[in-house]
């Protein structure tokens, strides 16, 4: 990343990624298919939708729908298709 952006700050990326993950996962836990459809597609979107529909079909839900802490999540890697990140 430093090659493309000398000002790149990995710690800032990690903080932003944690917040994005928290928002995504809380919406997944609540079964918000509309939100998930906006932020993920393809295989990931289909998998999320299938899990939510299975929960609805079987009549169960998560006990906790809000994550209290995502600090143990570690940014390990990612890729961006067809464009420079």
**Mean pLDDT across residues:** 81
Class of secondary structure makeup:
mainly alpha
Q: Count of DSSP E strands? A: 0
% residues in beta strands: under 5%
Largest sheet: none
Instruction: State the helix count.
Output: 3
Percent helix, as a range, is 40-55%
Regions with pLDDT < 50 over 5+ consecutive residues?
Answer: none
From the spread of the alpha carbons, the general shape counts as elongated
Question: Can you walk through the features of this model?
Answer:
The protein contains 3 helices and no strands. It is mainly α. The chain has one domain (10-80). The longest helix is centred in the N-terminal third of the chain and has 21 residues, at 10-30. The model has no long low-confidence stretch (mean pLDDT 81).
In short, what is this structure?
The chain has helices at residues 10-30, 33-39, 42-58.
């Amino acid at each position: 990343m430093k090659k493309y952006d000398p000002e790149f700050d990995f710690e800032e990326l990690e903080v932003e990624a944690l917040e994005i993950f928290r928002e995504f996962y809380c919406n997944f836990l609540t079964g918000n298919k509309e939100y998930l459809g906006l932020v993920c597609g393809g295989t990931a979107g289909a998998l999320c939708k299938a899990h939510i529909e299975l929960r609805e079909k079987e009549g169960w839900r998560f006990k906790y729908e809000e994550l209290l802490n995502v600090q143990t999540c570690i940014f390990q890697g990612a890729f961006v298709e067809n464009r420079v990140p």
